[in-house]
Amino acid sequence: MSTRVQHNLPTLLPPAMSRSSSSSTITLIPSTPPAHKDAFFDSPLVVTTPSLPDYPVFTEKCRDLSALKITKPIKAVFKDALAGLDRPLRIVGLLATSDSGCHMYADMTARACKQAEVVFDKVDLSAAEDDYDDSASFAAVRAKIVEINDDLTVDGLIVYFPLFDAVRDAELRALIAPRVDVEGVHPESLERSYDHPPSTVEELTANPAAATVYPCTALAVVRALQSNEVGIYNSYASVGDRFRGKTVTVVNRSETVGRPLAGMLANDGARVYSVDIDSTHVYERNGGDRHSVSVHPEVKPSLASLLAESDIVVTAVPGSSFKVPTIALRPGAICIDLSELGNFEADVRDRAGMYAPRLGSVTILMLKVNAFVLRMQHQ
Fold first, then answer.
1. Which of 71, 177, 294, 315 lies at a CB distance of 3.0 to 4.6 Å from 251, suitable for a disulfide?
2. Which one is catalytic: 102, 113, 216, 335?
3. Band of the pLDDT at 172, cuts 50, 70, 90?
């Protein structure tokens, strides 16, 4: 009798699930809400152990992917570029929630900006949260975004989501002026990010006017994979082919992390399986300038079958119950965990070749990179 190991999303979550992850909201919305918890067992996020390949024993030692080794060369490249500015970069962080994670992230950003001689101003509306009803709070945040948009001394605006419901949060994202959209979450910024493969840091600083602002967390993953520390990125290949031959599984097709990340990697040659609660999409570039997206040919491919092909696994599921089963990983896979709750099992290093349990400091650095690009494009 086969053993069915169920690694499914949290069974008690409502149909629309959201949680703050770094500065972005990660959301999974099934097209048909499950009627009961067992419905999740039939989702793509199911591992059936008999289908696992007969891998040889993996004896290599897993290396932790060091954020310091990723950020150090990027900072070195940007040092001269920042020195040429007529005034320091200025980023404003807008807090309107009492969520401790958002406040912690704002404090981390403030410290990192200070070290990099970037001005960071925190605007905190959360203290007045109890003084307003819901509609008044929304109006106050909306008015503050408009005010910051009009301040030409501001190079970047971070709004710490989630704040209200999904619809109103989307309205607030769309209200952020593209010239200060340092997180790359405005619909216009997101659409551009699907069209272009990310350049190297050296290429970006040489011609920032032609650069694209990408969502920070997704960009942090790409910068990690581009680093010499990882050693899989072919910077000598033509743009569009630098991740050629690599297969990636990205779990959670959120609009600000999973989906743009899949597009960015596919635009540079990777084959990407984008896994969400109700479907798996395949992102790949087949000769054109932009990637194509198709539904996986299997109706409900098991997560194990996708992991068996994957050189790289990136997860961003906002729930503690979901874990990528270590036994299903391809030996030597590069594993990157973007969830603050941890999406890999404790023994992931027994199977992975490289593991990144967090990339927060890389994400914060990408804020500064994006602020530099926006300054150069709108000064």
1. 315
2. 216
3. very high
